[in-house]
Amino acid sequence: MARIDGVNPEEVETYIRKVFESQEKIWGSPLLNHLVYARRPSIFRGARAMWTGISTSGLIDEKLQCLLNRRVAMLNKCEF
């Protein structure tokens, strides 16, 4: 459970809603951290740009990205 309440996915701008819909197709629901980022759309867009840049750079293998995400979540005491 997040310490900070996220947004209602139905009450966000179009870009954010599309990201949430994509996450729902992949993982069954929007990711909790993205619900929190969406409280400030500029932060949301920045975080998405970072992950898109990492993903498309080809510098970090996709499987390693998943492991890194889990490790960061664990360090932050987040359920992943």
Automatic annotation (TrEMBL):
Q: Which domain of life is it from?
A: Bacteria
Q: Which InterPro entries match?
A: AhpD-like
This chain belongs to the protein called Carboxymuconolactone decarboxylase-like domain-containing protein
